[in-house]
Amino acid sequence: MRNIIKILAIGLLATACGSKSIDISGTYKDIEIQRFEQDLFAIPADSVWQYVPQMEQKYGRFFDLYNQRVINIGGTNQLNYDRKLASFLTDPDIRGSYREVSRIFGTGEPAFSRDLSEAWARMAVLFPDIELPKIYTHLSGFNQNIVADSGVISISLDKYLGVNHKYYQMLRTPVYQQRNMHPQKVATDAVMALCLTEFEYAPKDDNLISQMLYYGKIHVLLDALLPNAPDTLKWGYTRQQLDWCHRNEQQMWLSMVEKDALFSTSMKEINRMVAPAPFTASFSQKSPGGVGQWIGYQIIKSYLKHNSQVTIQQLMRENDYQMVLNASRYRP
User: Fold this and answer.
1) pTM to 2 decimals?
2) How many CA atoms within 13 Å lie on the side-chain side of 197?
3) What is d(CA 210, CA 200) in angstroms, rounded to the nearest whole number?
4) Do 13 and 36 share a domain, yes or no?
5) Residue among 281, 191, 175, 277 at smallest CA distance from 233
6) Residues 144, 212 within the same domain
């Protein structure tokens, strides 16, 4: 790539596999989302060194990660660190984005905390051996959407200010990216980060179909953790793009088979099919980007349909994607 207290009773919720349900009445706890950006911007620019020790104590390794890999000003042991952090904190556009974040997300518990609390509770039921990460929020200077590290998932709130926001216009952010830069997208992106962090790509054979099926099973888990989220949010596609995928599913699959592309190890070919983009270059400009992930998801659903004994736990730990493809009996 990648604080739970009050217990509530929640009803039964369906998983992606359809035949079982997840009872989170015993695992639901309100997540405490730590607002790192509020602590950071409370630091007076002329007194950075006085506040560094308490930031290091409260946020541990994440504070160093933030300095070195998110805003790229180096570690606290480097010369002129205080000046670099002060420059970041007083930059007019950064200050302006902080005001926008406070306006849109408030200063207390953000609206998306309930969705994340429920998703974390479902993950605790499905995979009780996983130590779930803490959740922070931060400003990235319009860099990464989500930062995932050992034990932490942090959300760059300045990347979710809303479609056509003035800062995105100023930065000339591509329209296809802006479509997913709004507050309602936070929960699905954070849960996707959780899935990707806990179940890393470790294929038996690394090729296009393996990557497609890996992302397919990640999306199945995303369904299980956020069963009430609309498909448009989970996929980041418009309704028209999803409709296009359903209408052209068979044609896309046959095209890939005929071109002998499924077992390609070319990173160019793989990225063309699974990476975010305005559209998938192998198909129509009406297609969404990364449509290979969506096809992989359809194959995984077919695999689960024809192998009903397979649990979601077994699915997520299965890395023999050739076996999964053969057992899926996928026929769009």
Assistant:
1) 0.91
2) 23
3) 13
4) yes
5) 191
6) no
For residue range 74-83, what is the model confidence (pLDDT) as tens digits?
999 998 999 9
β partners of residue 51: none
Same domain, 48 and 194: yes
What is residue 214's DSSP assignment? H
- Among candidate residues 164, 198, 232, the one where a domain is terminated: 198
**Stretch (H or E) spanning 49:** helix 48-59
144/33 same-domain check: yes
Cβ 238 vs Cβ 293: under 8 Å = no
* Number of structural domains in the chain: 2
Query: CA separation (Å) from 263 to 82, 150, 269?
Result: 51, 32, 10
Q: Are residues 182 and 223 in the same domain?
A: no
CB of 222 closer than 8 Å to CB of 195: yes
Domain membership of residue 141 as a residue range: 1-198
- 271-295 pLDDT tens trace: 999 999 999 988 989 999 999 999 9
**Domain contains 203:** no
Query: Tell me, what DSSP letter sits at residue 20?
Result: -
Q: Under DSSP, is residue 30 helix (H, G, I), strand (E, B) or coil?
A: strand
- For residue 315, which amino acid is it? L
Residue 16 pLDDT greater than 80, yes or no: no
Q: Distance (Å, rounded) from C-alpha 131 to C-alpha 229?
A: 24
| Both structure tokens of 82 | 């205080």
Q: Identify whether residues 134 and 275 lie together within a single domain.
A: no
CA atoms within 13 A on the CB side of 146: 22
Cα–Cα distance for residue pair 193/236, rounded to 1 Å: 14
Is residue 1 one of the residues assigned to a domain?
yes
CA dihedral 162, 167, 169, 174 (to 10 degrees): -70
Asked if the structure places residue 324 within a domain, the reply is: yes
Same domain, 186 and 212: no
| Domain annotation covers residue 243 | yes
pLDDT at 6: 21
Contact 298, 216 (CB under 8 A): yes
The owner of tokens 């200050």 is 95
